[in-house]
Amino acid sequence: MISLANAALRIYVALEPCDMRKGFDGLHASASRHLRDGRLGTGQLFVFANKRRDRIKLLESLTRFCEGRLQLVVNRAKSRAAPLKSCEFLGYKLNNRAKLAWTEKARHRFKERVREITRRNRGHRARDVIDELNLYVRGWLNYYKHSSTYSEVKDLAEWVRRRVRLYYWKQWKQPRTRRRNLLALGINPGRVRLATRSRKGYWRMSQNSIVRTALNNRWLEEQGVPDMRAIWIVLHHGPKAHV
Questions:
Q1: Which bin fits 199, alpha (ψ -120 to 50), beta or left (φ > 0)?
Q2: 85-99 tens-digit pLDDT
Q3: Is the pLDDT of residue 142 over 60?
Q4: How far, in Å, CA of 47 to CA of 27, rounded?
Q5: Listing from the earlier edge strand, what are the strands of the sheet with 10-13?
Q6: Does one domain contain both 177 and 75?
Q7: End-of-domain residue from the set 86, 111, 142
Q8: Better pLDDT: 47 or 202
Q9: What pTM does this model have?
Q10: By CB neighbour count within 10 A (0-12 exposed, 13-18 middle, 19+ buried), where does 186 fall?
């Protein structure tokens, strides 16, 4: 169910077919479930349809109503009568639990931008890369703070940290430099050679147990790498939430 509003009237449109045999009481209960406080009041208009052709007619009549009565501009190219799950708006969609989530396009754009920031041939200082990454990640999470995608945020958080490990490993480059840094980060001297002399690629080494132990989550956070999970929790539950 979506809502359109002006100063005096809020319109709620059910985009899924409704069983009109429920009667007024049944439709009243369906509408109440979609409101935050569960209460219906004055200044609210609920629109239901039970067939696809009715939804198409409904779309046409609502377009005329919005453009005429409410003086709103309707983008006809982006307006359609479709199942709610297939609709996207400004990077948002509804998931299977009817909760807001970001779209696949939004997720793809996020990962592409992070790859661009952390690409291994940039030649920038790690501090500068982390600052740029921090700015982008926080801005992106603030925009999508209404989404209910905690599990996806956890996965993305780990992926972002892995991209940063890859960048550090590429910057260190020479085996002697890698050895010096790994030893400084507390890795056993007997194990260091297993990583510094490895012929695996940068992406595979970013997941290597020795590299992960040296560049652990706490160390990365101390360097300024954003913890997406912690940011998401604070945005959803307030600054006093337990992270």
A1: alpha
A2: 667 777 888 777 767
A3: yes
A4: 10
A5: 2-5, 10-13, 44-47
A6: no
A7: 86
A8: 202
A9: 0.69
A10: exposed
